[in-house]
Every structure is written in C-alpha cells, then in structure tokens.
C-alpha cells in the first residue's frame, strides 16, 4: 500500500541518463505502487502534443504499459509543460488533474500541486504566468509552425535562465502565507509539491494551532527523487538512477 509522487524530471533528448533513470524507476517502484502522480515539469519544455520527438513516444509507451497493467497515473501541469494536452495524456493512459487537487489517501487529507503558484513573491513570474495561461494566447501559439514554436520556447528558456540569475533565493521560494492559505482552502494536512527544487519535509504551524506538513520533491539532476505516502506516513526518498 503506497502511492508515489514525482516532479521536475525535465526530460529531454539531451539528458538520456534521466530518461533511463525514469524508465528504471517505473520498473523498480511504480509497478508495485497503488498509483503514480506526476506533479509537473516532467519535460524540459512542451510546445504541443503534435511535437514528433521520439522521446515523447518512448515515454508515452512506457506510461501506457504502466497504466495498462492497472497502476493509475495522474498528471498536474508544471510551468515547463503546461501545454501537455488530452491527446498526449490519452497516449499515456494518464488523467490530467487541475492545478490544485485534494486527495484522501489511506485516511490522510493531502493537497498536491506543481508549486509555482505558491511563489507569490516572484511578481514578474506570476505576471508572465497569467499571460501564458491565457487560453487565447495558447490557441494562437498552437497555430504557429513547429519550428517557430521551438524557437520561441528556446528563447523563453534563455530569458528565464537569465532573469533567474538576478532573483534572490527567497523570492524564488514559496510564500509561507500562500502555503497556509492553500492548506486551509483545501482542508488538507499535508501539501506535496515540486518546482522549487529544494527537497525537504517542513512542518507548518497552522493558525488553528495544528501542525501541517509541506513535502517538497527534488529535481532529477543526478539522482531520482520521490515522495511515498503509505498508511503509516509520508517519506521523501532520493535514489540513484
Ligand atoms: O523554468 P525555470 O526553472 O527556468 O524558471 C521558472 C520560471 N520561468 C518559466 C519560463 C519557462 O522556463 C519557459 C518554458 C517554455 C515553455 C514552452 C513554451 C510554451 C509557450 C507557450 C506560450 C503560450 O516558467 C521563472 C521563475 C522560476 O521558475 C522560479 O519560480 O522565476 O520565471 C521567469 O523566468 C519569468 C520571468 O521573470 C519573466 C518572463 C521571461 C520570459 C518572457 C517570454 C515572453 C512571453 C511570450 C509569450 C508568448
Ligand atoms: Mn517548475
């Protein structure tokens, strides 16, 4: 009895070791789990379900095998792959979830999300996010030729890396008040998210005197990172590829 959570793999053709690590993780861990939740930034970037990259077919086929074997898989969009759509989800046999989802697992009320919406101090990012989440802008983008979309994505990644260099660590972390409000809004005791690449399990003092937990997934740079929820509790696990 255990449910697994992962995020921030940033899969790309340029990082075959991470892809291999993910495929091994499926065989070693996911097939024995009750369910797998992918909490965004699964891919380095995503420009549309019509992108013919072989990596995408390799991943969808592996996830399809998993879901076909009876392990359900759920996906929440990240800030890199918010354009993953129904077509790719169907190819994987996975279910797309809204940006915030409350679960009840083995009696534990849990809130899951990518985590970028909690970074409310990063005002520039939140402004940018509202623009790229506009359905009309997304529709316009989807009509552009593949090449143009790839070029725009590469420019956005460059721009992002440039501006991130100038932002403080505090600005790019979650805002504590946003964490408390999200937990209260969803009446959850535990929050699981990724995005910040700062793996840890934090205690959160709630205004009602209760103690909540915020579990943060690590990014898959040189090792894997997962969170396991069982009837007994919650655990953050780092493992070699
Ligand atoms: O991703 P990461 O870790 O580098 O930094 C994030 C935030 N950056 C982003 C940008 C993504 O990396 C870009 C991914 C490309 C997606 C595929 C293309 C889809 C296009 C769809 C168009 C409809 O999310 C970064 C945060 C950081 O996390 C920490 O939280 O700070 O935020 C930014 O860098 C935003 C900047 O502050 C300002 C915006 C720069 C980009 C401007 C592009 C112009 C928009 C064009 C719209 C068509
Ligand atoms: Mn992210």
From TrEMBL:
Annotated binding of Mn(2+) 2, by residue: 41, 79, 114, 195
Cofactor binding remark: Binds 2 Mn(2+) ions per subunit in a binuclear metal center.
Topology in the membrane?
A: Peripheral membrane protein
Molecular function, one GO term: manganese ion binding
Keyword vocabulary terms for this entry:
Cell inner membrane, Cell membrane, Hydrolase, Lipid A biosynthesis, Lipid biosynthesis, Lipid metabolism, Manganese, Membrane, Metal-binding
Q: Could you give one GO CC term from the UniProt record?
A: extrinsic component of plasma membrane
Q: Which InterPro entries match?
A: Calcineurin-like_PHP (IPR004843), LpxH-like (IPR043461), Metallo-depent_PP-like (IPR029052), UDP-diacylglucosamine_Hdrlase (IPR010138)
Q: Where is the protein situated, by its record's location annotation? A: Cell inner membrane
Cofactor(s) recorded in Swiss-Prot or TrEMBL: Mn(2+)
| Pathway connected to this protein | Glycolipid biosynthesis; lipid IV(A) biosynthesis; lipid IV(A) from (3R)-3-hydroxytetradecanoyl-[acyl-carrier-protein] and UDP-N-acetyl-alpha-D-glucosamine: step 4/6
Answer whether the UniProt record assigns the keyword Transmembrane helix to this protein: no
BP terms from Gene Ontology: lipid A biosynthetic process
Report residues binding Mn(2+) 1.
Answer: 8, 10, 41, 197
EC number, UniProt record = 3.6.1.54
What family does this chain come from, according to its entry? Answer: Belongs to the LpxH family.
Give the protein's biological function: Hydrolyzes the pyrophosphate bond of UDP-2,3-diacylglucosamine to yield 2,3-diacylglucosamine 1-phosphate (lipid X) and UMP by catalyzing the attack of water at the alpha-P atom. Involved in the biosynthesis of lipid A, a phosphorylated glycolipid that anchors the lipopolysaccharide to the outer membrane of the cell.
From the Swiss-Prot or TrEMBL record, give the protein name: UDP-2,3-diacylglucosamine hydrolase
Gene source species? Hafnia paralvei
